[in-house]
Amino acid sequence: MSTTQSERLRELLEPLVTSQGLDLEEIAVDSVGRKRVLRVVVDSDSGADLDAIADVSRALSAKLDETEAMGDAAYDLEVGTPGAERPLTEHRHFVRATDRLVKFQMTEDGELVARILAVDEEGLDVEVPGVKGRKATTRRIAFPEIAKARVQVEFNRKDTKDKKEEEA
């Protein structure tokens, strides 16, 4: 997809997504066989449930049909969320990942897996899990030190809410 088409689609669709209380994270047009697929990825600070996805999908579909922004050829519209192991590229992504385990590719020091404790404008406070019985340590990471970051899936972690209920 050309940059200009991507920019036009973003300009057209972003106000609609925002009006639904969501952020437009990504737009991609792919060819699948003879069909084209327009993939729209949305999210919000509180997540996007199925009802919100359905609402925004209907609004986007109507707008695309009204403006013919995708042309006359057939296409499928897919609206979804970034998924569990999303890359963190924007400040808001790091804020949303607070209390999540993240794998960082550092600009100089290799990789680091740590839990995000707090986020501000300059960087992150993280907790690095202890190894072989050692206690976890905290560390400050400035945004310029991060080359890449991706949320990690945790299957065996108890939810924070569950911990609070156990302590009560």
UniProtKB/TrEMBL annotation:
Coiled coil: none annotated. The keyword Iron does not apply. Its main location: cytoplasm. The keyword Protein transport does not apply. Gene3D superfamilies: RimP-like superfamily, N-terminal (3.30.300.70). Residues 88-155 form the Ribosome maturation factor RimP C-terminal domain. Keywords: Cytoplasm, Ribosome biogenesis. One of its GO terms (cellular component) is cytosol. It is found in: Cytoplasm. InterPro entries: Ribosome_maturation_RimP (IPR003728), RimP_C (IPR028998), RimP_N (IPR028989), RimP_N_sf (IPR035956). One of its GO terms (biological process) is translation. It holds the Pfam family DUF150_C. Residues 12-85 form the Ribosome maturation factor RimP N-terminal domain. It comes from the Bacteria. SUPFAM superfamilies: YhbC-like, N-terminal domain. PANTHER family: RIBOSOME MATURATION FACTOR RIMP (PTHR33867). Belongs to the RimP family. Required for maturation of 30S ribosomal subunits. This is Ribosome maturation factor RimP. It comes from Streptomyces griseofuscus. The lineage of its organism: Bacteria, Bacillati, Actinomycetota, Actinomycetes, Kitasatosporales. The gene is rimP.
